[in-house]
Amino acid sequence: MEEVPHDCPGVSSAQAGRGASCQGCPNQGLCASGAAAAPDPAIEEIKEKMKTVKHKILVLSGKGGVGKSTFSAHLAHGLAEDENTQVALLDIDICGPSIPKIMGLEGEQVHQSGSGWSPVFLEDNLGVMSVGFLLSSPDDAVIWRGPKKNGMIKQFLRDVDWGEVDYLIVDTPPGTSDEHLSAVQYLAAAHIDGAVIITTPQEVSLQDVRKEINFCHKVKLPIIGVVENMSGFTCPKCQKESQIFLPTTGGAEVMCRDLKVPLLGKVPLDPRIGKSCDKGESFFAEAPDSPATLAYRSIIQNAELSWQPYLAFKN
Amino acid sequence: MLRVQGKAVHQCDSGWVPVFVDQEQSISLMSVGFLLEKPDEAVVWRGPKKNALIKQFVSDVAWGQLDYLVVDTPPGTSDEHMAVVDALRPYSPLGALVVTTPQAVSVGDVRRELTFCKKVGLRVIGVVENMSGFVCPHCEECTNIFSRGGGEELARHAGVPFLGSVPLDPELTRSLEEGRDFIQGFPESPAFPALSCIAQKILNEAPVGLS
């Protein structure tokens, strides 16, 4: 991968190729000539690659730690329960790649073939890609600035041999920065079905979700809906419910109503979810009757309604 | 969380004036949140722009005489983290407080954060295990919703101090929602002794008055 200088101003910036930090960069001439600000040819290449991918779904959150990767993994598990549905899960959280662990694929390696990088297959119909598979040790840190992360995301979208896929689920890091912009920009020419946004019930979390919703509007990314995670806890001993993450402003329900975005559902806390993820197993298999499992299944059904029209083409 | 949303940042001769969160003016705050026109505005910036603002937060804010500067960071090991380490390096930072939740998936990411600290020469003051257990207010049964012990084990594996575990407490969430001082409001909470103990350990490391 190309080395970029520490203080790269960004290839589309007015300073591109002209800033002090550009001296010595191998791309300096390219940027100074304005060629780098031209549309990236990778966008067309990715459009071609994505022709075999029917649905693309981004999973976003404003805050970290709200259960985004857990949701992405279980959305993948849920969709892949139908053996005739081909599912791909792409983890673009470059600094914190949790997906390999949650999917029970820690330690797996990525192989190259004539047609590109092969995803790691959990099942015949469920393939996974993550920077986690490219790291040799669980202690390795990915200390990369934006441009290098963007390069990795480009490679994931362009160079992975996804094959014929019904659903590509893209798990993202929290926020609205390089990774999110890159994912949207590189997929610009290929149709993205939309984004699912994960939150917890409290206002401190919702504040960031509103920003995430505004980001989606800004980059014209449709919103499939919002999932409220960690929504209530039932004590296993006395069966009484407590709210740990208090919905002091009405939770996601009120926010979704105000902003006119769909609420896909609410998932209660269940200690078995964390345990399953830690073991790399599907929570659906671990606790099929849990209220959390039922909530997840209902959310997946609600989400499917938003890409219903495309199902007609599939059949 | 500190009940100063919507406040404006002013300029003075020595730079931007941070916002005081209490009457005694013992805690001041700077955040990009103060620079947004609307609270729901998304800050959709790539790395270089974020780095520039972080540098300004360190060098262009008139912090005045401070005993402690606490820097809250986003998750990860990227632009923001490198920018703030670079900006603070000339001022010999005391180190990093690394927060994790107990479960393995969280610890899996935080291991990498510890490697980051090592690589950039940032000392680790210690690891805090947050959301460590929930005591049911109805029957007092403690449930480890996000598992338990991962933070302590991580600290041991990495050879850094373990500062303590903070349990889940809805009153802490409520305080943050309402911007109230949790320490003042809920001294009976199970989270209070945990937080106090951690704060005390840090104070012991670098008492006020010692350079």
Automatic annotation (TrEMBL), chain A:
Stretches assigned to coiled coil: none
Any one GO MF annotation of this record: 4 iron, 4 sulfur cluster binding
SUPFAM superfamilies, per the entry: P-loop containing nucleoside triphosphate hydrolases
Cofactor requirement: [4Fe-4S] cluster
Annotated ranges, domain AAA+ ATPase: 54-210
Domain of life: Eukaryota
One Pfam family from the record: ParA
Matches recorded under InterPro entries: AAA+_ATPase, Mrp-like_CS, Mrp/NBP35_ATP-bd, NUBP1/Nbp35, P-loop_NTPase, YlxH/NBP35
One GO cellular component term noted in the UniProt record for this chain: cytosol
Subcellular location per the Swiss-Prot or TrEMBL entry: Cytoplasm; Nucleus
Binding residues annotated for [4Fe-4S] cluster 2, in chain numbering: C235, C238
GO annotation (BP), single: iron-sulfur cluster assembly
Binding site for ATP: G62, K63, G64, G65, V66, G67, K68, S69
Function of the molecule: Component of the cytosolic iron-sulfur (Fe/S) protein assembly (CIA) machinery. Required for maturation of extramitochondrial Fe-S proteins. The NUBP1-NUBP2 heterotetramer forms a Fe-S scaffold complex, mediating the de novo assembly of an Fe-S cluster and its transfer to target apoproteins. Implicated in the regulation of centrosome duplication. Negatively regulates cilium formation and structure.
Name of the protein in its database record: Cytosolic Fe-S cluster assembly factor NUBP1
Gene: NUBP1
Automatic annotation (TrEMBL), chain B:
Gene Ontology CC annotation, any one: cytosol
Protein name: Cytosolic Fe-S cluster assembly factor NUBP2 isoform X5
Domain of life: Eukaryota
Keywords: 4Fe-4S, ATP-binding, Iron, Iron-sulfur, Metal-binding, Nucleotide-binding
GO molecular function per UniProt: 4 iron, 4 sulfur cluster binding; ATP binding; ATP-dependent FeS chaperone activity; metal ion binding
Pfam families linked: ParA
Any GO BP: iron-sulfur cluster assembly
Organism of derivation: Balaenoptera musculus
Gene name of the encoded protein: NUBP2
